[in-house]
Specification:
Length: 293
């Protein structure tokens, strides 16, 4: 029995424009995925008997919906391997927060098991297995920050400047389909070329078209966004939502600035908890992170 540990990083959408809708209801997007060093860790225990199982229960995620198991089954089916695996998962990326945690876990399963099982699929083939698992899974198999088009599968690598991020998760769970199906979602943003983004490759570029819908349906996310902007802690960095939320982020030039902002917010929240518990929004996570290549 050999155990392997593999990280699965979270992503931020630096901007997200909805540029159309396909006949099957999926939306055509233009976005930039940036990976950050907030990671889940997966443990793999390869087994010879072909059984695929999980070592850890994911609260609220039954086995048949668990993307790590679905990814392992997809690779096993595609390659006909007789091997199995037990998958352990240490969750740090918030679930349903727009940070792609489940998608990243699934991609890490595909990449790791392809090695451990010796099934020899190319990265391209793994990306094809990834897409039916979710629109955000291919970019994590791609493995680097990317400009994405289509539903998220048409990927071009981009080199991004070194930046740090403060990520904050308001106390709200946002189901992605509810946001994409909202009647007031803007679906006709103009197409841009990568060159336009690369002229200003930061979170100040463009917008997240899902934000107004989330802010309308989840006032606690709007409240958290406003509160973050008003504290003077972000030093003018705009607050943006990642994916379909609820996570919000602000970009900084230096990690030390993001760490300071994290400490200041945590201190305000601790102090306010003791004195007047209703004066600040609830966050489930406030964390400084480094942007990855
Ligand atoms: O692909 P994934 O399972 O992550 O998508 C969740 C839901 O989000 C889809 O069922 C769809 O309603 C919506 N979606 C979309 N267009 C995308 C990605 C997701 O409409 N490009």
């Amino acid at each position: 029995m050999t155990l392997y540990d593999v990280p699965a990083p979270a992503k931020l959408n630096l901007f997200l424009h909805v540029v159309g809708r396909r006949a099957d209801g999926y939306h055509l997007l233009q976005t930039v995925f940036r990976f950050i060093d907030l990671c889940d860790t997966l443990h793999f225990d390869v087994r010879a008997d072909g059984v695929i199982s999980r070592a850890t229960e994911l609260p609220g995620v039954p086995e048949e919906q668990d993307l790590t198991l679905r990814a392992a089954h997809a690779l096993q089916r595609a390659t006909g391997t007789k091997q199995g695996v037990q998958i352990g998962l240490e969750k740090r990326i918030p679930q349903g927060g727009g940070l792609g945690g489940g998608s990243s876990d699934a991609a890490s399963v595909l990449i790791a098991l392809n090695r451990l099982w010796g099934t020899g699929l190319s990265r391209r083939e793994l990306m094809e297995l990834a897409l039916p698992l979710g629109a955000d899974v291919p970019v994590f198999v791609f493995g680097q920050s990317a400009f994405a088009q289509g539903v998220g599968e048409d990927l071009t690598a981009v080199t991004l400047p070194e930046r740090a991020y403060l990520v904050a998760q308001p106390d709200a769970s946002v189901p992605t389909p509810r946001i994409f199906s909202a009647p007031d979602l803007t679906r006709d943003s103009s197409y841009i070329t990568i060159a336009v983004f690369l002229a200003s490759p930061t979170s100040r570029f463009g917008r997240n078209d899902l934000e107004p819908v989330v802010y309308r349906l989840y006032p606690e996310v709007l409240g958290a966004s406003r509160w973050l902007a008003e504290q003077g802690i972000l030093r003018g960095a705009p607050v943006r939502m990642s994916g379909s939320g609820a996570c919000l982020f602000a970009e900084f030039s230096e990690l030390s600035e993001a760490v300071l902002a994290e400490a200041e917010i945590s201190a305000i929240m601790r102090g306010a908890d003791k004195i007047f518990s209703q004066t600040h929004p609830r966050f489930r996570l406030v964390q400084a992170c480094t942007g990855l290549a």
